[in-house]
Amino acid sequence: MWYFTIREPCKEPRLVKLKSGNLSIGRSSANDIDIEEDSASRLHAKVLVDLVAATISIADLNSTNGTYVNQQRIQGAFQLAVNDDIRIGKTSLLLVYYPDEADSAKSDSVGAHLFPPYSSPRDTTPLQ
Questions:
Q1: String of b and e for 88-127 (b: at least 16 CB within 10 Å)?
Q2: DSSP for the chain?
Q3: What is the distance between the alpha carbons of residues 94 and 79, in angstroms, rounded to a whole number?
Q4: What is the pLDDT of residue 101?
Q5: pTM of this prediction?
Q6: Tell me, what's the pLDDT at 21?
Q7: Which end of the chain is least crowded, N or C, by CB within 10 Å?
Q8: Which residues contact 109 (CB under 8 A, 6 or more apart)?
Q9: CB atoms closer than 10 angstroms to residue 22
Q10: What distance in Å separates the CA atoms of residue 60 and residue 54, rounded to the nearest whole number?
C-alpha cells in the first residue's frame, strides 16, 4: 500500500495511507490531508491515486507559494514515484510503499521502516 510520511515543523511525523481517488492537500481542515503550514493555501494541491494502475500524481492548484517535488517546482499534473519528496512550505510529504503483508504493522506502529532511504532525484518534467 502507498503512504505519505508527513513531516511538519515541531510535530511528530505521521503516516497517511493513500486511498484510490482524488485527495486534497492544504491548510484547511476540510482537506483530505490537512497541513499546518502558513505558506500553504487553504486548498493547495490535489493527489490522484489509481491503485489499479498503480499510479499516483499530484497537481498544484495555482497556489501562491507552489508545490515542489524533489526540490523542483511543478506546473500541472506530475506523476510521482516511490521516495519522491513533496514540499509545501516547510512540510514534507514523502511517498513510500509498504507491501500488503506489512500494512497492519506499519499503520499501527511508527518504526524504523517509516523513513526509507531517499532515492536519487529524477526528472521533474510535467506530464503531458
A1: bbebbbbbbebeeeeeeebeeeeeeebeeeeeeeeeeeee
A2: -EEEEEE-TTS--EEEE--SEEEEEESSTTSSEE---TTS-TT-EEEEEETTTTEEEEEE-S-SS--EETTEE--SEEE--TT-EEEETTEEEEEEE--GGGHHHHHH---GGGSPPPPPP---PPP-
A3: 14
A4: 57
A5: 0.77
A6: 96
A7: C
A8: none
A9: 10
A10: 21
**Count, residues in the chain:** 128
Nine-digit cell string for 18 = 493513500
Locus of grid cell 482537506: 31
- Cell 495555482 identifies what position? 62
